């Protein structure tokens, strides 16, 4: 009898585990948030807040230290253990208020975070822009939907090192900024995710490029329409079989966004973000290049006109794609990222050599690439200990990861 | 003497009768046979669409066929298949062109059926399904076939014997298609023949 009950419970658990949970909601302070009552900080004031902080209260949860860095719209805190904090910031008189949420990227953990900097603990000097080496952020964090009731105190330790300040290291986020499977609030390969990813510490993105049957380049990872990436709809089967009008009409990404065309996604990168690097991961090689290269050229020209420092490289993941690229007129002037050997990178005159991270740091080859004026970026590195190892011992110019906040921590802490 | 002859006569005649009766027994019961059933009825798709749900046609006719080995005990083992249309969705593009998309499925399931009480049966089955998707009206018509590897059904049926060979019945069935997380139920009448 006990065995039967145990079996039934096990079956029920197995069925329950099949529930599709696609999102961990971002906790919100709601209508009581003080941020809407505050004034925004000036750019000079913002820079004064950046640096490395010691966690004097809450270190068992966030680690002994963390990195504080502004992104385009908010202040991000990156921790060594996979947690990150995204904060909206404003000031009332000489007191600075910081409110937002934390999330553990490797688990379901999340919660509210609320901090302030009093006038005498750095608030006054930050607001006036006079500089301060004595910043103390005091406040609390909550667990899941609970109110912030766990003490959190951060004490400014030091600014970023010269190594960091002089570096153009690329923190590249996978699938336009984050994977759907990591239960972020936006779908992978969507414009909404491109808009969000800078909060995670990203300075560049990788997007997956495909072609519809009528020749429209769009971004989407899997070869088929499935309920992992899209809302349940009436279309199924290989996504590239369909025309753009069909996909636009019948398919939405898992959080409801439209699948973007490559052109729309790249235009958004130029016009609405500060991202510096876009890696076009070519998923198919059948005549894709002829459609993608003109888009790349147009967007690079647009970026140039706007004075944006932006690199858009066409990924070469296979010899098929390499061969297709090499049939393109003037292919040696097309910015590309070669995932194959260094010789292949030379053959295509790739701007970037991008080996798989599991091949090791390969510092000798990376240095050879540097001497030839090429960059080197490895992909796709997710394990915290390896990220730390590669940042500290590797010579790469950037890394592609699903956890950009971890990479951001180990980069900025140097 | 006559008594002895009578006893001997009985000893000869009775076995002879017994042997004769065995040879010509009219009760010829076949305890192990096969059956083939064909059903037709109504299919209702449990509408879990997140795109186009409001413009979906979710009721349609359906067809099923099954072949069972029916041994002398309560359990039968067999294969079942059928044709089920899950839905038809109509939608307009931003240029106001109306397109439609349909999804149909042909499952092939290994099924076990059990007689619970007289004439009343319960069945479960699991197996593969070919799923057919077609979009038309917008640009060219596109047809795709996908294979769903994890599908199952539960059903309850009532079977009424018309003769030794022929049966009719009704069946309520719930079907799940794992690949697309789609569910449907169907109500069908069927005719079965015992082979």
Structural commentary:
By secondary structure, chain A is of the alpha/beta class. Chain A is globular, with a radius of gyration of 23 Å. Chain A starts with a helix and ends with a helix. Chain A has an 8-stranded antiparallel beta barrel with strand order 1-2-3-4-5-6-7-8. Chain A has 14 helices and 19 strands. Chain A is 29% helix and 25% strand. The model of chain A has no long low-confidence stretch (mean pLDDT 93). Chain A folds into 2 domains: 30-159; 165-412, Phosphatidylinositol (PI) phosphodiesterase (TIM Barrel), CATH 3.20.20.190. In chain A, helix 8 packs parallel to helix 9 (288-305) and helix 13 packs parallel to helix 14. By secondary structure, chain B is mainly beta. Chain B has a single domain (31-194), classed as Porin. Helices cover 11% and strands 66% of the residues of chain B. Chain B has one helix at residues 2-23, and strands spanning 33-46, 56-57, 59-70, 75-92, 98-117, 120-136, 142-161, 166-177, 182-194. In chain B, strands 1-3-4-5-6-7-8-9 form an 8-stranded antiparallel barrel. Chain B starts with a helix and ends with a strand. Classes of the chains: A alpha/beta (414), B mainly beta (195). The interface between A and B is medium-sized, with 23 and 31 residues.
């Amino acid at each position: 009898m006990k065995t039967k009950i145990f079996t039934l419970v096990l079956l029920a658990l197995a069925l329950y585990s099949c529930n599709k949970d696609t999102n961990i909601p971002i906790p919100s302070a709601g209508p009581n948030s003080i941020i809407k009552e505050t004034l925004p900080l000036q750019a000079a004031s913002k820079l004064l807040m950046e640096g490395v902080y010691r966690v004097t209260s809450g270190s068992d949860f966030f680690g002994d230290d963390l990195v504080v860095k502004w992104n385009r719209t908010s202040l991000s805190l990156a921790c060594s253990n996979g947690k990150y904090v995204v904060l909206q910031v404003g000031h009332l008189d000489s007191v600075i208020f910081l409110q937002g949420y934390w999330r553990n990227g490797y688990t379901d953990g999340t919660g509210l975070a609320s901090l302030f900097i009093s006038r005498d603990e750095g608030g006054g000097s930050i607001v006036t822009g006079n500089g301060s080496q004595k910043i103390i952020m005091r406040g609390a964090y909550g667990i899941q939907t609970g109110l912030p009731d766990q003490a959190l105190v951060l004490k400014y330790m030091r600014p970023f090192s010269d190594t960091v300040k002089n570096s153009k290291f690329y923190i590249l986020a996978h699938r336009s900024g984050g994977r759907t499977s990591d239960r972020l609030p936006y779908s992978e390969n969507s414009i909404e995710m491109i808009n969000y990813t800078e909060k995670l510490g990203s300075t560049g993105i990788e997007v997956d490029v495909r072609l519809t049957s009528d020749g429209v380049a769009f971004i989407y990872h899997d070869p088929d329409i499935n309920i992992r990436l899209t809302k349940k709809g009436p279309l199924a089967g290989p996504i590239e079989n369909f025309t753009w009008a069909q996909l636009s009409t019948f398919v939405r990404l898992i959080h409801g966004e439209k699948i973007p065309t490559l052109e729309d996604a790249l235009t958004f990168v130029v016009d609405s973000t500060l991202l510096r690097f876009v890696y076009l991961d070519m998923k198919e090689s059948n005549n894709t290049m002829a459609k993608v290269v003109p888009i790349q050229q147009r967007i690079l020209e647009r970026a140039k006109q706007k004075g944006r420092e932006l690199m858009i490289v066409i990924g070469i993941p296979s010899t098929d794609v390499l061969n297709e690229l090499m049939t393109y007129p003037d292919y040696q002037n097309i910015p590309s990222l070669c995932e194959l050997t260094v010789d292949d990178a030379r053959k295509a005159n790739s701007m970037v050599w991008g080996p798989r991270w599991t091949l090791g740091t390969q510092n000798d080859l990376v240095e050879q690439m540097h001497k030839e004026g090429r960059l080197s970026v490895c992909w796709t590195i997710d394990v915290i200990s390896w990220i730390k190892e590669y940042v500290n011992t590797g010579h790469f110019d950037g890394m592609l990861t699903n956890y950009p906040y971890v990479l951001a921590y180990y980069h900025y802490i140097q | 003497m006559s008594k002895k002859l009578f006893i001997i006569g009985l000893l000869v005649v009775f076995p002879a009768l017994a042997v004769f009766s065995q040879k010509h027994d009219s009760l010829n019961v076949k305890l192990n046979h096969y059956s083939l059933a064909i059903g037709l009825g109504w299919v209702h798709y449990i509408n879990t669409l997140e795109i186009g749900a409001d413009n979906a046609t979710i009721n349609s006719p359906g067809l099923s066929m099954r072949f069972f080995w029916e041994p002398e005990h309560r359990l039968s083992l067999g294969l079942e298949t059928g044709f089920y249309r899950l839905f038809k969705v109509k939608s307009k593009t931003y240029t106001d062109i109306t397109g439609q998309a349909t999804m149909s499925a042909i499952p092939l399931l290994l099924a076990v059926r059990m007689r619970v009480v007289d004439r009343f049966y319960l069945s479960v089955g699991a197996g593969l399904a070919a799923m057919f998707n077609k979009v038309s009206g917008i640009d060219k018509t596109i047809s795709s076939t996908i294979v769903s590897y994890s599908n199952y059904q539960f059903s309850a049926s009532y079977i009424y014997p018309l003769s030794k060979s022929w049966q009719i019945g009704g069946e309520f069935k719930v079907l799940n298609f794992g690949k697309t997380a789609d569910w449907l139920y169907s109500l069908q009448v069927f005719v079965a023949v015992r082979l």
